[in-house]
Design a protein that fits this description.
A hairpin with a 2-residue loop joins strand 1 and strand 2. The chain has one domain: Gcn5-related N-acetyltransferase (GNAT) (Aminopeptidase, 3-Layer(aba) Sandwich), CATH 3.40.630.30. It is about 30% helix and about 30% strand. The protein is α+β, with helices and mostly antiparallel strands. It contains seven helices and nine strands; from the N terminus they run H-E-E-H-H-E-E-H-E-H-E-H-E-E-E-H. It has a nine-stranded mixed sheet, sandwiched between helices. The mean pLDDT is about 95. The structure holds coenzyme A (COA). Coenzyme A (COA) binds next to strand 5, helix 5 and helix 6. The site of coenzyme A has 23 residues, from strand 5, helix 5 and helix 6.
């Protein structure tokens, strides 16, 4: 019998750096992850940081909505459009979520990232390291030429993480957030601009994942 990661290669991806580990979000981790989200993700000193209202939902709705989003994301991943969902552990403790996504990657070589940490785990440098780790994966394993990310203008913490990692701001546009007008800031970074983490980054599950997204060796 085959394992889950042999059947569905995104489930086999893992990235390690010092005491931080990113590993594929799998169905068995969802119950613990949603309780972390319910305990709080949104800082009182920033605007609401997400595009959808998921973090504001009552607990039962948040659990169901998150689970449905994860199943949709796993089920719809194809070489031409995929999103790799990873959980973040620091010192073995579950602290948050980091994703990596792309459309038409073999042609564009551009990836996008998004992330969140439980409130109790923010402000300790983890957000910076996990972004550096996923960008190292994008550049070194996938051969990305550019990493992109975006943040609302009133989310200076996320913007600061992007600046520390080496991104440059290249655009700002009006968008809708929870039915209200907001401004979104766009960042991009090449491998040459990338400030790598101080400790080495190691990867697992990369050959199968490269095949899954149709990267030719
Ligand atoms: C964004 C997030 C992932 C960053 O993770 P983190 O572990 O808190 O970030 P770090 O500790 O690595 O770095 C935060 C940086 O922001 C700085 N910062 C904190 N508050 C700030 C503020 N109000 N204004 C400007 N910078 C601020 C910190 O000083 C630090 O920079 P420094 O190392 O130069 O001192 C995390 O805060 C989070 O989950 N926030 C809620 C969800 C979210 O915003 N997700 C991103 C959506 S785009």
């Amino acid at each position: 019998m085959r394992t889950w990661s042999e059947i569905y290669p995104p489930f086999g991806v893992a990235i390690r750096c010092g005491d931080v580990e990113l590993s594929a979000l799998t169905p068995d981790v969802v119950p613990e992850l949603v309780e972390l989200a319910i305990a709080g993700t949104v800082r009182p000193d920033t605007g609401y940081p997400f595009v959808t209202n998921w973090a504001l939902l009552p607990p039962a709705e948040l659990r169901l909505s998150a689970a449905q989003f994860y199943f949709d994301t796993w089920g719809s991943a194809r070489p031409e459009s995929w999103q790799l969902l990873m959980v973040v552990r620091r010192g073995g403790q579950l602290v948050g979520c980091q994703d990596l996504r792309a459309t038409q990657f073999p042609t564009t070589r551009i990836v996008h990232t998004g992330s969140w940490l439980g409130l109790a785990h923010q402000g300790r440098g983890t957000g910076t390291v996990m972004r550096q780790m996923v960008c190292a994966f994008a550049f070194d394993v996938l051969g990305a030429t550019q990493c992109r990310t975006e943040a609302f203008l009133d989310n200076p913490v996320s913007q600061r993480v992007s600046e520390k990692v080496g991104y440059e701001r290249f655009d700002q546009r009006p968008v809708e957030r929870l039915g209200e007008p907001a401004e979104e800031v766009y960042f991009r970074m090449t491998a040459e601009q990338f400030n790598r983490p101080t400790e080495p980054v190691t990867f697992a599950g990369v050959v199968a994942f490269r095949h899954f997204i149709d990267l030719v060796d």
